[in-house]
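User: I'm curious whether this sequence folds into something compact or stays loose and floppy. Could you predict its structure so I can see for myself?
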Amino acid sequence: MKQPGFFDVEERLARLSELGDQLEAFFRTVDFEAFRPDLEKALAYSVSA
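Assistant: Here's the prediction. I'll summarize afterward.
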């Protein structure tokens, strides 16, 4: 099985958009920036300084 190329992935994503990708609708609806402080605090343990 060969690895998909860049254009294969791009075409697949374009096709999903044409069909009404639910993730795109979700991202238009939810303001994820509102969750950023909580996520950064929760994930701070994984960031090494």
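Summary: The chain has three helices and no strands. The mean pLDDT is 86.
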